[in-house]
Write a structure and sequence with these properties.
By secondary structure, this protein is of the alpha+beta class. It has two domains: 245 residues, Bira Bifunctional Protein, Domain 2 (BirA Bifunctional Protein, domain 2), CATH 3.30.930.10; 90 residues, Anticodon-binding domain (Rossmann fold), CATH 3.40.50.800. It is 38% helix and 21% strand. It contains 15 helices and 16 strands. The strands form three sheets. An eight-stranded mixed beta sheet has the order 1-5-6-11-10-9-7-8, sandwiched between helices. Strands 13-12-14-15-16 form a five-stranded mixed beta sheet, sandwiched between helices. Strands 2-4-3 form a three-stranded antiparallel beta sheet. Helix 1 crosses helix 11. The relative contact order is 0.12. The structure holds histidyl-adenosine monophosphate. Histidyl-adenosine monophosphate binds next to strand 6, strand 10, strand 11 and helix 11.
Length: 421
């Protein structure tokens, strides 16, 4: 028997409904912030991700599903949504139409990661990307929209961590400082960190293997090298969040695993002791240089992405889903072949009038037909036999009160419009 690929999932029935419920809740919040949907392809030229996330990032160095197509092009299943949106923003010259562009997206992402609770190889993200303005007000507004999404979903115990990794000059100075520091402690760090030391020392701070190593915890913090401009920028973001009453914690070790960030970076993590505790549910930040590095104009971007599977897992834990499974309004029961044909006709008339109507396609015995109506938790039954056919009537049974009545067939739709709101 075939099995699903490791790290992938089937969303069946109720699980699919949960995914769509989360999507529609998020959509209703984010559209109020002026975001428009963007749908980009599932795969891109590999270079799109290498150039943006950075060759040394875990995503590019270990996690991409990269393949050659029949034309010999190197393509990659998107591991994240930011780079494709930047590619599309530039290719379609969207910056020429408006000064500020706000996009949101939903869709599957692919990373060859070690599967565990809340971590998959195919997973769904909701993300936003905003282009055009460098303003602490925008950074704060992006973060506020993330917080409001958690509120709209009713999710509790979320902690927002925020940091600045500075502008480009601050980052370069910080990289030098970290290099000097880690060079003296390199023997206690993992093999990946040894490699990162020369190429991208900031990434050592983000190492999943060495994350509890005191050498990492005691590493110099970025404050020491932040330019005045970067400090003032970050302070303004914090002040606005304070004024809005957003709870956050400044985490000086938060650097994020992708190379494209500058200045403000943040993560919302689940603050709990269960198996999902500490997982990032949403993460993002500002990226001032990505558009330019894709050979576009000098336009800053900022955004974030939520992991939808993680949201679903938390909402299950916190019991936040409403009843999503709706029973059938009407199940139609036919007692002979002729009556069965009629049930099909009636079922479709009812469906076109907006009711959820179902029938048994095979059986004329009552028992299996009642069983179906039980399984579908039907509110009403329509029973049609020889007598009903001859008299052009329907026998309608209220499945809750068990009361039964006979109605003329041409009253069917009006009858149910009165009974089922
Ligand atoms: P990221 O931190 O790589 O950032 O992923 C964002 C979120 O996607 C994570 O916080 C997590 O909830 C979810 N996620 C990531 N990997 C997995 C996985 N293997 N299984 C399940 N969920 C996962 C980005 O992707 C950036 N593009 C975010 C961004 C947008 N920055 C600026 N704009």
């Amino acid at each position: 028997m075939y099995q699903k690929v490791k790290g992938t999932q089937d969303f069946i029935g109720l699980e699919a409904k949960k995914l769509r419920y989360v999507e529609s809740k998020i959509r209703s919040v984010i559209e109020k912030y002026g975001y428009e949907e963007i749908i980009t392809p599932i795969f891109e030229n590999t270079e799109v991700f290498v150039r943006s996330a950075g060759e040394e990032s875990d995503i590019v160095s270990k996690e991409m599903y990269t393949f050659s197509d029949k034309g010999g092009r190197s393509l990659t299943l998107r591991p994240e949504g930011t780079a494709p949106v930047v590619r599309s923003f530039l290719e379609n010259k969207l910056y020429a139409q408006r000064n500020l562009n706000k996009f949101y997206y939903f869709g599957p992402m692919f990373r060859y990661e070690r599967p565990q609770a809340g971590r998959f190889r195919e997973f769904n993200q909701f993300g936003i990307e905003t282009f055009g303005t460098s303003s602490p007000l925008l950074d704060a507004d992006v973060i506020i929209s993330g917080t409001e999404i958690f509120n709209a979903l009713g999710i509790k115990n979320i902690k927002l961590k925020i940091n600045t990794i500075g502008d480009f000059p601050s980052r370069t100075a910080y990289a030098k400082l970290l290099q000097d520091y880690f060079r003296n402690n390199i023997s206690s760090l993992c093999r990946d960190c040894n490699r990162r030391l020369e190429k991208n020392p900031l990434r050592i701070l983000d190492c999943k293997i060495d994350k509890d190593n005191p050498v990492l915890k005691n590493a110099p913090k970025i404050d020491t090298v932040l330019s005045d401009e970067a400090k003032i920028y970050f302070q303004s973001v914090i002040d606005i969040l304070d004024a809005y009453g957003v709870n956050y914690e400044v985490d000086r070790n938060l650097v994020r695993g992708l190379d494209y960030y500058t200045d403000t970076v943040f993560e919302y993590i689940l603050d709990s002791n269960d198996e999902l505790g500490g997982l990032a549910i949403c993460a993002g930040g500002k990226y001032s240089d990505m558009v330019k590095s894709f050979k576009g104009p000098d336009i800053p971007g900022i955004g974030y992405a939520f992991g939808i599977e993680r949201i679903i897992a938390i909402m299950d834990l916190q019991n936040l889903f409403p009843a999503l499974e709706t029973g059938a309004d009407i199940v139609l029961i036919g007692l002979d072949e002729k009556a069965k044909e009629k049930t099909l006709l009636y079922a479709n008339k009812l469906r076109m009038a907006g009711f959820y109507a179902e029938m048994d396609y095979v059986n004329i015995n009552l028992k299996p037909q009642f069983k179906l109506s039980d399984q579908l938790q039907a509110k009403y039954l329509i029973i049609i036999g020889e007598e009903e056919l001859n008299n052009k009537v329907l026998t309608v049974k209220n499945n809750t009160t068990k009361e039964q009545e006979s109605i003329p067939e041409d009253r069917m739709i009006d009858y149910f419009k009165e009974k089922i709101k």
